[in-house]
Amino acid sequence: MIHVCFALYDKNGTYSKFTGTTMLSIFENTITPPQLPSITVHLLHDHTLTTDNREKFLQLAARFGQAVKFYNVENFSDKLDEFIKYVPNVKNSHLSVGTIYRFLLPQILSPEIKKLIYLDADIIVNLDLNELWQIDLGEKILAAVPEILSYETRESMNYAFMLCAEGLVAPEDYFNGGVLLINPNLFRAEENAIKEGLRFHFQNPKYQQYFDQDILNYCFAAHALKLPLKFNRFVLYARRDEELPSKKIYHYSGGSFGYGLTFDPRDPFNRLWMKYFVKSPWFNEETLAHLYESFMQARTELKKSALKLSVQVSGKSRIFLTNEEQLDLLLENFSVREDEDVFTVADGTALQKIIDVMNAQRGKGIFFFLLPRFPFDVLEKAGFVRGEDFLDGFELLPLEYNFNLPRGFEFLSPTFNSYPLVKAL
Questions:
Q1: What is the full DSSP assignment across 234-274?
Q2: Single pTM value for the model
Q3: Binning pLDDT at 50, 70 and 90, where does residue 420 land?
Q4: What is the pLDDT of residue 63?
Q5: Which of 165, 144, 154 is nearest to 222 (CA)?
């Protein structure tokens, strides 16, 4: 029996379809004997799970002859409150209280479950899950895919993850928390360590960006079994590397699945997700109505953005910064006039040099950057305002240009001693 777990907080009743799509991808790709259920999905939820969505989960599992079990975490309020007291800000922040639920897995599930796969909802399992399930954890509490397999260098890890930058977790050990193979009994024995991780997070708010993932790494990174990249491949980086969908677990991540899932059907990873979603109980006439509304809203927002941009640029000269590789892209899309300045930036250019050029034109011009992975936070620290002093030119390009952004250049920091060398991802 393969045991899979999801944690669901569905405030608006619209997130269940993503969990359901992940479930369907598991059921379709995992070879199981034609008898009693061979996969059990354990769904941790709260009052936000609607009756309709609950029925859809049951319908989906029944169609494939598998099982789904529901656990209302509010029935374990004492244990939940015990964890939340260490992070009282979680209910009032951008974070979902559902991020706490995964820490309750060992306390809620039966001790008879010796192994468990935890998955985020923004995932497509495009392989036989037996491949992951059959991995021997040995004495390890959990197994996960190291982030460095996507980021490639220790420097880029230090820039992306504060725990690595401050030496609390080795860059090669820091893992992504979206796909976990867990020994629940060993995990259960680490309750005090998890509480210490929660306390550490609350006392250090600068670690909020990756909340539950940082807590798991703070507690277990040095002792986790490292999984191959195929078990948690970010779609963003698959596109970067010009990869086509294959037998892997794909992770569609980035606010509202921004860099992961989009409406563009020309992209093979969008089509991969839709391949499973259209077979789920959540694909119906209401879905089509929502799609139409989304397209109309996007059209309205595009008009507003165009108007706002015209106001921002009015009375200012346009100044462009790009590199040799993006020069043709710039000239094709921005109608650059002969009297407008275009600066080409070489690899290794000092950021201070760019800041000096911008200071010379402060208030007079607006800078359009067509430099992949440029660290705009450096400009903001120097007092420049996004939308008034500078714009990311890639955000103004047609969507297809953003699917496979090049890796970009390296820049030398203007405050080298206090700001790490920026490496493009």
A1: EHHHHHHTT----SSEEE--STTTTTT--S-TTSHHHHHHH
A2: 0.70
A3: very low
A4: 95
A5: 144
Tell me the per-residue pLDDT of 1-24, one tens digit each, with 9 for 90 and over. 999 999 998 888 888 999 999 999
Largest CA distance in the chain: 74
Going by C-alpha positions, the residue among 100, 2, 115, 113 that lies closest to residue 45 is: 100
User: Residue for token digits 């354990």?
Assistant: 42
Residue-range domain boundaries for the chain:
2-283, 315-423
Which tokens go with 244?
A: 């086509």
Q: Is the pLDDT confidence value at 307 over 60?
A: no
Class of domain 2-283: alpha beta
Q: Please give the pLDDT value at position 87.
A: 67
Token pair recorded at residue 103 = 């820490």
> Taken in order 316, 322, 326, 331, is the CA torsion positive or negative?
positive
Outline where 147-253 has alpha helix (H).
148-151, 154-160, 162-165, 184-188, 191-203, 211-220, 235-240
Q: Comparing 220 with 424, which gets the higher pLDDT?
A: 220
| Percent of the chain whose predicted confidence (pLDDT) is above 70 | 82
- In the numeric block, the tokens 């010379």 are attached to 360
3-state SS, residue 285: helix
Dihedral in degrees, nearest 10, Cα atoms 7, 12, 17, 22: -30
Q: Is the pLDDT of residue 418 over 80?
A: no
Q: What does the DSSP assignment read for 36-62? A: S--EEEEEEE-TTS-HHHHHHHHHHHH
- 320: which strand partners? 342, 368
Q: What is the pLDDT of residue 52?
A: 94
Query: Cα separation of 378 and 415, whole Å?
Result: 10
Distance CA(262)–CA(29), nearest Å, equals: 23
